[in-house]
Design a protein that fits this description.
Elements lengths: L10 H4 L4 E2 L2 H4 L4 E6 L23 H15 L3 E4 L8 E3 L2 H6 L1 E3 L2 E3 L5 E4 L4 E7 L3 E7 L4 E7 L1 H5 L2 H13 L7 E4 L13 H4 L8 E3 L2 E2 L1 H11 L7 E3 L14 H4 L5 E7 L6
Parallel strand pairs: 3-6, 3-8, 4-7, 11-14
Antiparallel strand pairs: 1-2, 2-15, 5-6, 7-10, 8-15, 9-10, 9-11, 12-13
């Protein structure tokens, strides 16, 4: 079973968004990040309460309020997101990209894709998850960050490695300088793939935790190591969203449910 650590649920905790943070990323000056739990929003069952997705049946006005709360909690000027497709498209959120983005308050949408990259300050890169991983990548040397949506299809397509290569080619990132955080997501305890012979490559077989169950946390770590990251620079939340569905949305566990927000940003210099 996964390391199940429950979020406190006092009335004070539930009155505002609560988020999971990574120890390694918390030490980076000027960086703000968090994987928000399902608590602290206004949505009603089955989206209770901090659902951040518009396309799952929730009331639009509730989603807007939830996103405003996430934005306020992060202290960013903008939230940038994409329609996630379980593909490998990577988008750079720069000044030109913000100008071209489609606005749905309070979010600016880039073209569809599954990885967002920026050097801008005050721009929160938003990935929405409910069992998939959000992988935070931070290069404190070059000042570039990436937020990656990685479900099992993204793992098969090796999107973590491709984003590291993109950062190296586009921004001169040395992979050894990258810090990574792998979000609460589907754990090896619950990641059952009955058709794994058809769905997953043979290279994943060594990550089979037990019959038909796979450790995608270890797979992402392995892919990041192959891309050149240092082992001590990769932090895994070790929180299974199925086991902890009282704290995180889980598509596998609930089907009709919300989406958690995972946000990564550089603070505005005036706020440091």
């Amino acid at each position: 079973m996964c390391d199940k650590r429950l979020t406190m649920k006092s009335p004070h905790d539930l009155a505002q968004p609560v988020r999971h943070n990574f120890e390694n990323l918390s030490k980076v000056p000027g960086l703000v990040h968090g994987v928000f739990t399902r608590h602290g929003g206004v949505s009603r069952h089955p989206y209770a309460t901090l659902n951040t997705a518009w396309n799952n049946g929730d009331a639009p006005e509730a989603v807007r309020e939830n996103l405003l709360r996430v934005k306020a909690a992060m202290g960013v000027e903008h939230l940038a997101a994409s329609k996630q497709t379980h593909g490998v498209a990577i988008h750079v959120v720069d000044e030109e990209g913000l100008t071209r983005a489609t606005e749905r308050e309070p979010v600016l949408f880039t073209p569809p894709g599954d990885a967002l990259v920026t050097m801008l300050r005050g721009v929160g890169l938003l990935i929405k998850i409910a069992d998939c991983q959000a992988i935070f990548l931070v290069d404190p040397v070059q000042g570039v960050i990436a937020n990656v949506h990685c479900g099992w299809r993204g793992s098969v397509a090796r999107i973590p490695e491709k984003v590291v290569t993109f950062l190296s080619d586009r921004f001169g990132t040395n992979p050894e300088n990258l810090l990574a955080g792998i979000s609460p997501s589907l754990g090896p305890c619950c990641a059952e793939f009955r058709n794994y012979a058809e769905e997953l490559p043979a290279s994943f077989r060594s990550f089979q935790a037990r019959t038909q169950h796979f450790d995608f946390w270890a797979i992402s770590r392995w892919q990041l190591l192959r891309a050149g990251l240092r082992p001590d620079h990769i932090e895994i939340a070790n929180r299974c969203t199925v086991c902890e569905s009282e704290d995180f949305f889980s598509y596998r566990g609930e089907k009709t449910t919300g989406r958690n927000a995972a946000v990564l940003a550089w603070r505005n210099r005036s706020e440091e």
